[in-house]
Amino acid sequence: MRSHDTVPYSLDTLPDDEAISRARSLRDRLKARRTCRYFSDEPVPREVIEAAIEAAGSAPNGANHQPWHFAVVSSPEKKRAIREAAEAEERRFYGADGDDPKASEEWLGALKDLGTDEDKPFLETAPYLVVVFAQRKGGIDEDGTTQNYYVNESVGIACGMLIATLHEAGLATLTHTPSPMGFLREACERPEWEKPLMIVVVGRPTKDATVPAHALKKKPLSQIASWL
Ligand code: IYR
């Protein structure tokens, strides 16, 4: 190793059975997470959002530049503006405005079992929209001059940690990705070198919320892992 400042690091050593049982228990809690599309307007504590963003902000990332920004939107006016702009894009995507859909027939076919369409009422009803921005530059400065590395990987991992923490706090989430979503930069007053990556919709499910049965079909371990 080249010389650099260090601090000690250690982890509690768990007995194997305890390690296995903890891994399985977190697995089971994470497996219970569902992508929810029916949100009530019931408020949720801001502290939960803050803690989840702090968890996300601890994600492994390129050169510790922490190339992310989380714009937390709760104002009804902002949420409405985001909904209107997102639905305008989604109408083009699904061809709901009378023109040919931007999405291919194949893509629309792949979405059939999810039941999604151009209506996104949750963007207004959910108490919080966490708009996640990836900083292509400017991770360690304010003026966007520093180059960042592995930006999509870093921010993707951070989003996973954000969602996991929100789920652990009993909140429902939805990763929403209108396409294109450049309008989010203006709505959230972010600089041009930041790229909106996704909206994480956060709140509580409505009493009669459902999820698509299709989304419950998960590939078994034998299909998603190989051991070499
Ligand atoms: N952004 C659109 C379409 C969409 C695309 C994929 I891939 C999904 O898994 C779900 C939706 C929408 O939100 O409707």
Task: Walk me through what this model shows.
The structure is a single chain. The chain is α+β, with helices and mostly antiparallel strands. The protein has a domain at 36-74 and 121-207: NADH Oxidase (3-Layer(aba) Sandwich). It is built from 8 helices and 4 strands. The protein has a 4-stranded antiparallel beta sheet with strand order 1-2-4-3, covered by helices on one side. It starts with 15 loop residues before the first helix and ends with a helix. The model has no long low-confidence stretch (mean pLDDT 97). Bound molecules: 3-iodo-tyrosine.
Give a short overview.
The chain has 228 residues and is α+β, with helices and mostly antiparallel strands.
What's the structural blueprint in terms of helices and strands?
Elements: H1 16-31, H2 46-56, E1 68-73, H3 76-94, H4 105-111, H5 122-125, E2 128-135, H6 151-168, E3 172-176, H7 183-187, E4 194-203, H8 221-224
Antiparallel strand pairs: 1-2, 2-4, 3-4
Helix pairs in contact: 2-6
The chain binds 3-iodo-tyrosine (IYR).
3-iodo-tyrosine (IYR) is lined by residues 90, 93, 111, 114, 116, 176-179.
